[in-house]
Write a structure and sequence with these properties.
Layout (H helix, E strand, L loop, with lengths): L1 H9 L24 H13 L10 H13 L10 H11 L16 H14 L3 H13 L9 H11 L5 H17 L3 E10 L6 E8 L32 H6 L27 E5 L7 E2 L5 H7 L24 H16 L1 E3 L3 E3 L5 H6 L1 H4 E3 L17 E3 L28 H8 L28 E5 L10 E5 L5 E6 L4 E8 L35 H36 L8
Parallel strand pairs: 1-12
Antiparallel strand pairs: 1-2, 2-3, 3-4, 5-8, 6-7, 9-10, 10-11, 11-12
């Protein structure tokens, strides 16, 4: 049968000679077939049908199956018929050239575990370099503070993070020092909880010469909607008004001047903050905060999503994205909750207190001869003070005068006229509480005080610590140990301020009046037909009177010419 299969496949167009058929004629005509042979031939051709050239026909499969059974290797062919057929089908499957699938992307958990494992593999080079410099030149270590010690004290205060998480944070801060060589000091600021991911924050400080203007400084023109050329944006330039609007339609309103951002290294931008979603992942530097962002952040209430590039949808609109909103909330929390024991910091002897308020970071110094005061462990708020500048209503730590004269002005203008012009518009400077103000003077939250003071243990007070919890920013905690010589601040919360009442979004402002109302722009009522007829009659009467007067003037001119005889001579 196998040999016959080959002959039939070679001659599909001609039927084969069946048993009992007569031989064909010499002229090549088809042999004569009986009806039984023709039916057998049709069935055989049906079994040899192929869907495509690469597939195998049923006839070929049955032929190979029968040949396998005839080999005698199988004892019970009927019972094993289906298994042998299935095995033959699998053997004929062509294996593709690349049967292995592409490697799937690593999950977030796997990438995080790999990144955190890198923190434990080796000691950063900066630590060894600092160690060598310490012994060679007598310099101090530029490393992270003892976070494990801080965590132990915060556990006594009733808050904190798991020990393994604290270890990862400590290693991540060391890695940050390796990545950014400008860091002069660093500390773990806290953790802000988000909806999808959290934010771990590091507070750093650069040297005075290392504060550079870079992309971290927020550009105010980013959110500017004015599309006029820069030459027409000047407040004193009247080119646009003179070209486009008449004098009576010029707008009287002038927008207030934009409050500039505090330079890097001063005020609210003295500290530089880095954020990461998990210890071990990449640290991202947050931009500087602007007064406009502080002002709007005070009016809205939004939970963090965990995505720094997420849009902040609110009213009033926030000038930035979530990373800017995060930076604004950090500035607000730091200004309210950075506290220290009374007497730990002092003003520089060379500078007066008023000057120290303007430059707090440069004028405050830690007191080496600090001694413990008894009220620190008695729960008194008089023993704690604020060592960070408060934020003014303007949105800055230092007040900026919006009416101050510009640096560039016309030299021909008299200085006295300049002073007289600015005197009536001089605003009152905004002032906040001075530095080192006791916590007892903070405003309470409803019936609750602004701070709750206690000790970690009343049974063993000599080994206890003084603890303070903020009721304004719930999650802000401070402790003082070692008789007040060692203290630290930490924030772990949602980044939302505790309000005395339920938060309500601000209502939209009333629209401004575009034009003053008056008879010159008020639309008059349509006249009645009788009024129109009276107006037409009055106009016709005026026309007739004008025509009559013109005729009378012409008659007078003719009479003068007739009397003189030479009418045109007298007008030469």
């Amino acid at each position: 049968m196998i040999g016959e299969k080959q002959s039939i496949r070679g001659r599909r167009d001609l039927p084969t000679r069946g048993a009992g058929s007569s031989s064909g004629s010499d002229d090549g005509s088809l042999p004569s077939l009986t009806p039984e042979d023709r039916e057998c031939l049709n069935a055989k051709m049906f079994l040899m049908t192929q869907k495509n050239e690469d597939s195998l026909s049923l006839y070929d499969h049955l032929s190979s199956l029968i040949a396998t059974l005839l080999d005698g290797e199988t004892e019970n062919g009927l019972a094993q018929l289906e298994d042998i057929s299935e095995t033959m089908k699998r053997e004929r499957i062509e294996v593709p050239s690349a049967p292995i699938r592409d490697e799937p992307d690593k999950s977030y958990t796997e990438r995080l575990a790999k990144a955190q494992w890198e923190l434990f593999k080796k000691v950063p080079d900066c630590v060894q370099d600092d160690l060598d410099n310490h012994f060679e030149e007598g310099n101090g270590f530029k490393s992270v503070p003892d976070i494990l010690r801080q965590a132990a004290f915060f556990e006594l205060a009733g808050i904190g993070l798991p020990r393994e998480e604290i270890v990862r944070i400590s290693l991540a801060l060391t890695e940050l020092i390796t990545q950014c060589p400008f860091i002069k000091s660093i500390r773990f600021w806290g953790k802000i909880i988000g909806i999808t991911r959290n934010y771990y924050l590091a507070e750093t400080e650069f040297g005075e010469e290392d504060y550079e203007d870079d992309a971290s400084i927020t550009n105010d023109t980013e959110h500017e909607t004015d599309e006029l050329p820069s030459g027409l944006r000047d407040e004193e330039s009247s080119v646009y008004d003179d070209m486009m609007l008449p004098d009576d339609l010029k707008p009287l309103y002038k927008p207030p001047p934009k409050i500039p951002c505090e330079p890097a290294g001063t005020g609210l931008n003295k500290k530089v903050y880095f954020v990461t979603s998990e210890p071990g992942l990449q640290w991202i530097r947050l931009p500087h905060v602007t007064p406009a962002q502080i002002q709007v952040a005070r009016k809205i209430r939004k939970f963090f999503t965990g995505n720094l590039d997420a849009q902040v949808v609110s009213h009033p609109p926030f000038p930035g994205i979530e990373r800017n909103y995060l930076r604004a909330q950090i500035a607000r929390i730091s200004a309210s909750t950075q506290i220290s024991p009374l007497g730990y910091f002092r003003f520089d002897d060379e500078a007066e207190e008023e000057e120290a308020v303007e430059e707090a970071g440069k004028k405050l110094k830690s007191s080496s001869g600090y001694k413990n005061i008894k009220t620190l462990y008695d729960g008194s708020l008089q023993a704690w003070v604020h060592h960070s500048q408060a934020i003014l209503p303007q949105g800055r730590a230092t007040w900026w005068n919006p009416a101050q004269p510009k640096e560039e002005f016309n030299e021909e203008e008299d200085e006295e006229e300049e002073e007289e012009r600015n005197e009536p518009d001089e605003p009152e400077p905004e002032t906040g509480p001075p530095l080192l103000t006791p916590l007892a003077e903070d405003e309470s939250v409803g019936r609750s005080p602004a701070w709750l003071a206690r000790t970690s243990s009343k049974f063993v007070p000599e080994y206890g610590i003084a603890v303070l919890h903020s009721n304004v920013w719930v999650g802000a905690t401070a402790f003082a140990a070692d008789k007040g010589k060692y203290f630290e601040n930490l924030y772990i919360g949602w980044g939302q301020k505790n309000l005395e009442v339920v938060f309500e979004p601000a209502l939209p402002e009333m629209p401004l009046t575009e034009f003053p109302s008056g008879p010159e722009i008020t639309e008059a009522d349509d006249p009645t037909p009788e009024e129109e007829a009276a107006v037409r009659a009055a106009l016709q009467e005026k026309e007739l009177e004008a025509e009559f007067e013109q005729n009378m003037d012409d008659d007078d001119d003719e009479d003068i010419v007739d009397d003189d005889g030479e009418g045109g001579a007298q007008f030469d």
